[in-house]
TrEMBL record:
It comes from Bradyrhizobium macuxiense. Residues 178-269 form the Peptidase M20 dimerisation domain. The active site is at D82, E143 (proton acceptor). Keywords: Carboxypeptidase, Hydrolase, Metal-binding, Protease, Zinc. This is Carboxypeptidase. GO terms for molecular function: carboxypeptidase activity; metal ion binding. Its cofactor is Zn(2+). Transmembrane segments: none annotated. Signal peptide: none annotated. The keyword Metal-binding applies. Pfam families: M20_dimer, Peptidase_M20.
Amino acid sequence: MSSNPFEAAAILDGIRRWVEIESPTERPDQVNKLVDLVASGYRDLPATVERVAGRDGCGDHLVARSSWGQEAPGVLVLSHLDTVHPMGFIERLPFKVEGDSAFGPGIYDMKGGAYLAYHAFRRICADGARAPLGITQLYVSDEEIGSPTSRALIEAEGRKAKYVLVTEPARDGGKIVTGRKGVGRFDVFIKGAPAHAGTRPEDGRSAIRELGNVIQTLEAMNDLKRGVTVNVGVVRGGTKPNVIAEEAYAEVDLRVPTMADANELVPKILGITSRTKGVSVKVTGDLNRPPYEKSNSGAALYEHARTLAAELGFDLLDVFTGGGSDGNFTAPHTATLDGLGVDGKGAHTHYEQLYVSSLEPRARLLHRLYQTLR
């Protein structure tokens, strides 16, 4: 029996149990199986567990609160239990360890990190000495689709907290995240007039042609120097090649580094109009994750974590990333540190993996954050 409470092999065994319960967002029954397992891990700990029933086709959310420190603003730990991988993907990507890599669906994004936060909480409870602040661990079931059913819960808990720690995976060799782009999603609906493409094309008004105009307008909004990206990722339209298309549709993704950029671009996208007489263009959507800008309180939290990491023997660098997370919802009003999960690579792919060597140092870092935040 090892005397090291952060031994990688023991942590990895816990992660394996979570990974082997597949939990695609669209399978609430499977997500809830994992919620059952996670909740059972708190039964012998000084903590209360609240389960928020799922809705709109999503699984349950789980809130585990330490029995101490809940009367004052404390530490909120944000994790998600859903994955992008469809049911049965574990047959293609079974849990296995090869050298320093452990593979499995969702192991890097983010079951590994979620488990590290749980393991560090167990150690705090075992230490006997209570952490200075109360700790609340929130596990949501719908992060991979934009957190539609958990956002209000995340924001409410975030406003009550003094610090927010997010267990999304590390980036680029162990960097933590101190800023993320805001994310907007939009639907474009175009209505024209059908006609026979061979005998009466002049009677038609092509929705597809107008969609081409809209795409050019959207593409022109890209500004890589500013970090603004607009991507038309899905297009549909028409019925047959010999029919002038009556309808067309597109789905659009917007990424912006600041709220100023969002305030400029969201109205621009929503305000797109048709250039063709007899064709209507309707755009719906909005920002679904605000930008996570590095605040003074967030920077101070990062410096504290960097000092702790140095004491543990590793450098903790930070990075700004284009991907969104639940940290976007808390960063505008609460000191937030993201990317505290495992190091690895291949999120959302058939080779998703964590690096076993990252487990002990990153679990110890979370433990030290729990011990020292006040």
